Amino acid sequence: MKSVNIGICGLGTVGGGTFNVLRDSAELITARAATQLRVTHVGARHDSSTCDLAGIRVSRDIFEVARDPEVEILVELIGGTTVARELVEAAIIAGKHVVTANKALIAEYGNEIFALAEKHSVQVRYEAAIAGGIPIVKALREGLAANRIEWLAGIINGTGNYILTEMRDRGREFSDALSEAQALGYAEADPAFDVEGTDAAHKLVILASLAFGIPLQFEAVYTEGITELTTQDVGYASELGYIIKHLGIAKQTDEGIELRVHPTLIPDDLLLADVDGVKNAILIEGGAVGPTLYYGAGAGARPTASAVVADVIDLARGVGVGASAPLPALGVAIADLRSLPLIPIEKVKTPWYLRMEVADKPGVLSTVASIFSEQGISIEALIQRAPGEGQTLVSLIVLTNNAPQGSVDIAVRKMEALATINGKVTRIRVEALDG
Question: Which residues are catalytic?
């Protein structure tokens, strides 16, 4: 039986997990790959106490792995987008297949990397870059290949989902829930990447490219974080029959493509609404299959390693026993990707939830209703809380029908300028996600 040599760059959480999954499940992996997978070279600045590297070449210069003529598949797990890009491109030019878990690298430089791979007749796989152990790349690229994907919506950042779950179930403020997420290791010391939506945006742009056959366009994703959400809004959403989730949403319409990451009210009877804690889930609407939901662990050493090793197995089958044709990284060749217009966020239409603190005076409601009417926004429901003893302000909650963000922007500015409205108007999009 032919063996396939693997080089791993990076022995952190995911790198160590990948090394150990390959070792612990060697017999099963050999059977499924129809070839033996051998880790022959590791590139890492430091050894890992969890990995037995006896008999394996270890280099402190990770580029030694890319230059090693015996390595056939290079696994990039160092993170970042500078050195990692140089490493991946060096491996491709050297004729090696590449597996990576690097979402930022793929989202920001995937077009160039995939084109380079096609030029050198090698493949780049990246299942682990999105949603940890959930095989969502394979599902979109292969399992749903017969479908026109209408839209997808995903909880694709575990940190944000954990925080929102704590705010809903335990009534915790954002800052308190974030502190606990950091203490448990779910959030970094600097959590901006997660709570401001950048991590989810990286993943969404990859999912959208797979779903719609378009180039990767990270800079085009509208991104809004969860730092301004309050337990007050979480509570009102619940009263109205909704759950607030931080979603990545991509839609294909007659006008073009929507790409957006933001807090969203979704009906509390959806399966997606039950995805709690650090779990991830992606709901996809396919033209032939209808809605399908993909759920599981979105991060962690072994779930992510599971996805990395699955890609290694796929590539090893081709190296070891031959493959009829390479699988395009985005489902179609780079030259065949479609150029579809991207819809500006100002023109994207959704229903809206708005909350404002208003003076308990006659005429305030009619003024607010007039501002909405001027912008062509119809009101679906309106709730005004009775004032407490001694209070001069009351909460006014409005649900609208479909309205473009540009019109809502104007309406909010006009309302915030009123003397009878105190402070900022909170606004959150609403999605039915019912196809």
Answer: 203
